[in-house]
């Protein structure tokens, strides 16, 4: 299975956040916590 590193997931989360996706949705997609996402 292909896996991304944490920095790649954070970049994905940052882009999703810019596009207006909710922290809950981003957490489901990236596996990051909602707290981590809010700090981006």
Describe the structure.
By secondary structure, this protein is mainly alpha-helical. It has one domain (6-38). It has helices at residues 6-18, 23-30, 34-38. It is globular, with a radius of gyration of 9 Å. The N and C termini lie far apart (27 Å).
What labels would you give this structure?
40 residues, mainly alpha
Shape: globular
Question: How many strand elements?
Answer: 0
**Beta-strand residue fraction:** under 5%
Class computed from helices, strands and strand pairing? mainly alpha
Number of domains: 1
Order of helices and strands: HHH
Question: Largest sheet, if any?
Answer: none
Q: What assembly state would you assign to the polypeptide chains in this entry? A: single chain
Helix content class: 55-70%
- Discrete helix count: 3
* Radius of gyration over C-alpha positions, nearest whole angstrom: 9 Å
Chain-averaged pLDDT? 92
How far apart are the first and last residues' alpha carbons, in Å?
27 Å
Residue windows where pLDDT falls under 50 for at least 5 positions: none
Fold blueprint:
Elements: H1 6-18, H2 23-30, H3 34-38
Quick overview:
With 40 residues, the protein is mainly α. The chain has one domain (6-38). The chain has helices at 6-18, 23-30, 34-38.
């Amino acid at each position: 299975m292909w896996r991304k590193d944490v920095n790649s997931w954070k970049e994905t989360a940052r882009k999703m956040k810019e596009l207006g996706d909710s922290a809950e949705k981003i957490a489901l997609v990236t596996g990051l916590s909602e707290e981590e996402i809010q700090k981006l």
